[in-house]
């Protein structure tokens, strides 16, 4: 996947400023994988065994972990899919129906949680969830 799709696709874009981040899952940190990613991203790699180490137990570090997977799961299972095809259709539908504003909200919430932006006194993320 990385060599046959991901890297060739990146070569179609300007990636001089692009950072790559992944968690420390064993399959992500095989020596060959890390070497390939280091060759591609240089010191802009955040990964276990990478130039910038992925913080352990940081499952909420990215908007995908912080927002997307829980959001998708909450909508995908509402009609209790009974087959793999039904489940896959639901996943595709939910992702296709997402709006950029939802993802933007998740970025702002993550920024507040990690201290990049102060929370305003009137903001309550428990009530104003996505």
What level of helicity do the residues show?
40-55%
Fraction of residues in β-strands: under 5%
| Total E-strand runs | 2
What oligomeric state is this?
A: single chain
Structural class computed from helices and strand pairing: mainly alpha
Helical stretch tally = 5
Judging from the principal axes of the Cα atoms, what is the shape? globular
Rg over C-alpha atoms, rounded to the nearest angstrom: 18 Å
Order of helices and strands: HEHEHHH
Mean pLDDT: 76
Give the uncertain stretches in residue-range form.
Answer: 121-130
Largest sheet, order of strands side by side? 1-2
> N- to C-terminal separation?
32 Å
Report the biggest beta sheet as strand number plus sense, adding barrel if it closes: 2 strands, parallel
GO molecular function: nucleic acid binding
InterPro entries: RNaseH_sf
Protein name: Transposase
Organism: Trichonephila clavipes (Golden silk orbweaver)
